């Protein structure tokens, strides 16, 4: 039985994970971490603390959907206590990514900006399309609920990275985020990002490859957070018996990219 701890158990993804784990074979939720103890999933009776140091029993794996500062602190704890990690939080800066790389030298970590199977397929298709349509202008449009705090979404950035990989360039050299005022003409080879925030949109991502005379558009639509929760749990099970390292969903799903 794989013992799981949910980091951010009171949050939207924490609730989705809780609903998925209940009744699932081979896994057992044993604890949660959240500074907010007043919005736990209904029926939740496992130990929940504000930090991992306070837990009386430690899990085999943490599944974390919180905020970068929280994730880095819990990940450091996990590395020191030999606990595997599934990291779904987005919005890490370079220093944060360095901490993740450092911790994954000690324990196995699966990190993904999007745990859905469909999005990971989309990434593979984006890389392929970008390579084939070398001269097309790439524009990425994403839409999320009004509570999302980072933009562009982590998934949109992963899509941009896949598109950049297809053309052997670095995303940071070609990325254009948002446009306003007199922007001048579109620069050849750039990859544009636009973000929409509103309502309860779970996650929409669209990639347009605009050439003279034709447009190829690839789209993904997430209608429920359960898709991310199921993918994160699949990653947690996949981690069993793995050595230290930083893994991604393509490895979990056996997708070659
Ligand atoms: P949320 O705000 O609903 O939940 C976050 C939870 O983390 C809250 O309950 C909050 O109390 C807790 N938290 C924050 N800081 C904390 C701290 N320092 N100590 C203890 N608890 C703390 O957010 P959400 O919608 O569940 O999303 C969480 C993260 O997951 C975001 O970064 C989001 O972008 C990301 N996300 C990733 C995927 C994916 O597939 N990778 C999918 C959905 C969301």
What does this structure look like?
This protein is α/β, with parallel strands linked by helices and 257 residues long. It has 2 domains: 138 residues, Rossmann fold, CATH 3.40.50; 106 residues, 2-Layer Sandwich (Dihydrodipicolinate Reductase, domain 2), CATH 3.30.360. The chain is built from 8 helices and 12 strands. Strand 5, helix 3 and strand 6 form a beta-alpha-beta unit. Helix 2 runs parallel beside helix 3. It is elongated and about 60 Å long. The relative contact order is 0.17. The mean pLDDT is 96.
Give a short summary of the structure.
Helices cover 33% and strands 26% of the residues.
Q: How helix-rich are the residues, as a percent range? A: 25-40%
Distance between the termini: 31 Å
DSSP strand count = 12
* Number of separate helices: 8
Which whole number gives the mean pLDDT? 96
Main β-sheet description: 7 strands, parallel
Text of the CATH class of the largest domain: Alpha Beta
Top keywords for this entry?
alpha/beta; 2 domains; seven-stranded parallel β-sheet; five-stranded mixed β-sheet; 8 helices; 12 strands; elongated; binds nicotinamide-adenine-dinucleotide
Topology at a glance:
Layout lengths: L1 E6 L4 H10 L5 E7 L13 E3 L11 E4 L3 H13 L3 E4 L6 H10 L4 E4 L5 H16 L4 E8 L9 H13 L4 H4 E3 L13 E7 L5 E9 L2 E9 L3 H13 L6 E3 L1 H5 L4
Parallel strand pairs: 1-2, 1-4, 2-3, 4-5, 5-6, 6-12, 7-9, 8-9
Antiparallel strand pairs: 7-10, 10-11
The protein binds nicotinamide-adenine-dinucleotide.
Nicotinamide-adenine-dinucleotide binds next to helix 1 and helix 2.
């Amino acid at each position: 039985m794989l013992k799981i701890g949910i980091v951010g158990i009171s949050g939207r993804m924490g609730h989705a994970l809780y609903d998925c784990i209940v009744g699932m074979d081979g896994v057992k939720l044993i604890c949660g971490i959240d500074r907010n103890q007043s919005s736990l999933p209904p029926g939740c009776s496992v130990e929940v603390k504000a930090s991992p140091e306070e837990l009386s029993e430690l899990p085999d794996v943490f599944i974390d959907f919180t905020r970068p500062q929280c994730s880095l602190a819990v990940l450091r704890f996990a590395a020191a206590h030999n606990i595997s990690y599934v990291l779904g939080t987005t919005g890490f800066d370079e220093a944060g990514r360095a901490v993740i790389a450092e911790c994954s030298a000690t324990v196995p970590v699966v990190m993904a900006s999007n745990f859905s199977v469909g999005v990971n397929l989309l990434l593979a298709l984006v890389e392929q399309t970008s390579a084939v349509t070398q001269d097309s202008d790439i524009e990425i449009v994403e839409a999320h609920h009004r509570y999302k705090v980072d933009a562009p979404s982590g998934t949109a950035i992963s899509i941009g990275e896949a598109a950049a990989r297809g053309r052997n360039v670095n995303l940071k050299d070609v990325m254009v985020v948002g446009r306003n005022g007199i922007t001048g003409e579109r620069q050849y080879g750039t990859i544009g990002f636009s973000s929409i925030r509103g309502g309860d949109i779970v996650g929409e991502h669209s990639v347009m490859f605009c050439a003279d005379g034709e447009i190829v558009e690839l789209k993904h639509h997430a209608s429920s957070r359960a898709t991310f929760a199921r993918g994160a749990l699949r990653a947690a099970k996949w981690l069993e018996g793995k050595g230290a390292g930083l893994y991604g969903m393509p490895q979990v799903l056996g997708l070659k990219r």
